[in-house]
Amino acid sequence: MDKELLDRLDKIEKQLGQKRKDFWEKIQVLTPILIPLSIALIGWYFTREYNYHQLEMQKINNENQLQVAIINSNVGQSQLIKGFMENLTSKDTAARNIAIEAILYAAPTPGKRIVELMAKSGDVKTKEIANDALSSKRIDLVDNLFSTQKQVRLIAANEITSNWNSDETLLNMLIKKSGTCLISNDSSPDCENGVFNTLVVLSSFSKNLLANHKNEVVNLISKIPTASKVTTNQGKELLKQVE
């Protein structure tokens, strides 16, 4: 083989050998950095996955506890109803009137249905007492929805969305109360929270019922200050149901 060719091949081999040497030298230099970085990345990944699964398990646990609480609540309300039935059907007017008022608060879900039934089918006096009790309950629900205490607001919101979201009178009262706050530019916490809560619970009312009061709802939302981003966004969500 030609000497010149051999020299060229030898030179190429030396260059390749040097490149391989340089490559491994770089690997050796980077290894102390890459290993801790790899361990950190793997640790981060497994920590993230662990936290995610923990949150999912907590969510499932909370949902199960909520279902148990609802069941216990329903059982408790059923037992209360049994205790009230004697007084609700009593000939003693005072006892019956007290029972009508009390059952709305002690057993909100079945109590409301029973009192509404009495307001429609009872004698004149019973109808009057039942309607008065329902009116008082509406006032309390609206006032509680605007309470400065978070727990009170949450209970009222839950009761409205569960039992009163077909009540047109309550709908009108909520719109009026919120409108009063907005017109007077009342920025107190109870008004701000109350308006937001009103928009939330109104979303649980039927689309047809909201459509019947479209103008009032739109007018209410138009009064929300643009600076109140969260309330404004909730208003936009409600608008989708009435448009």
Layout: helices, strands, pairs:
Elements: H1 3-88, H2 93-106, H3 108-121, H4 124-145, H5 150-163, H6 168-183, H7 189-202, H8 207-212, H9 214-222, H10 229-242
Report on this structure.
The chain is mainly alpha-helical and 243 residues long. Helices cover 86% and strands 0% of the residues. It is built from ten helices and no strands. It has helices at residues 3-88, 93-106, 108-121, 124-145, 150-163, 168-183, 189-202, 207-212, 214-222, 229-242. Helix 2 (93-106) runs parallel beside helix 4, helix 5 (150-163) runs parallel beside helix 7 (189-202) and helix 9 (214-222) runs antiparallel to helix 10 (229-242). The protein is extended.
Quick rundown:
By secondary structure, this protein is mostly helical. Helices cover 86% and strands 0% of the residues.
How large is the radius of gyration?
A: 34 Å
Alpha-beta content class:
mainly alpha
Number of helices: 10
The main pleated sheet reads as:
none
Kindly state the mean pLDDT as a whole number? Answer: 77
Calculate the terminal CA-CA distance, rounded to whole Å: 91 Å
Percent in strands = under 5%
What is the β-strand count? 0
Q: pLDDT under 50 segments (min length 5)?
A: 66-75
Tell me the helix content.
Answer: over 70%
**Helix-strand topology string:** HHHHHHHHHH
Shape: extended
